Amino acid sequence: MFQIDTMSRTPVYEQIIEQTERMVRLGVLKPGDQMPSVRGLSIRLSINPNTIQKAYTELDRRGILVTVAGRGAFVREDIGTFILRYREETFEKIRTAAAELRKLGVPGEEVEAAVRSVYEDGKGVSA
């Protein structure tokens, strides 16, 4: 489920957070899904349990997970709110980038072609 890059400059707990968010956005993790236990994931990834707990706590703070005492961490049932918020934030990034390109004098057709190429060719897409 998780792949940790020990050579990365990104801290391990942030890698867990990013990968969890990505799996939620892609529908790999669904509302109500139980996350691996802190202890089990710690053993499997050979990392300190406190690191995993830190990631789970942050995911809970962000509204992605909910922790149930004695039962574990679960993807929120209302995770759709997170997905909608992420989608709107991403559209805002596109609007901001388009405004910057417009200021630079880039024709709208060129911007549209760039967006279209991502959808048609997958060009410039990283998962």
Please characterize this protein's 3D structure.
With 127 residues, this protein is mainly alpha-helical. The chain has 2 domains: 12-77, Winged helix-like DNA-binding domain superfamily/Winged helix DNA-binding domain (Arc Repressor Mutant, subunit A); 81-121. The chain has 5 helices and 2 strands. The chain has helices at 12-25, 38-45, 49-61, 80-103, 108-121; strands at 65-68, 72-75. It has a two-stranded antiparallel ribbon with strand order 1-2.
Annotate the secondary structure layout.
Layout: H1 12-25, H2 38-45, H3 49-61, E1 65-68, E2 72-75, H4 80-103, H5 108-121
Antiparallel strand pairs: 1-2
- Mean pLDDT rating: 91
Q: Which strand-content bin applies to the residues?
A: 5-15%
CATH C-level name of the largest domain: Mainly Alpha
Q: Which structural class matches the secondary elements? A: mainly alpha
Name of the CATH architecture of the largest domain:
Orthogonal Bundle
Low-confidence stretches: none
Summarize it.
The protein is mainly alpha-helical and 127 residues long. It contains five helices and two strands, in the order H-H-H-E-E-H-H.
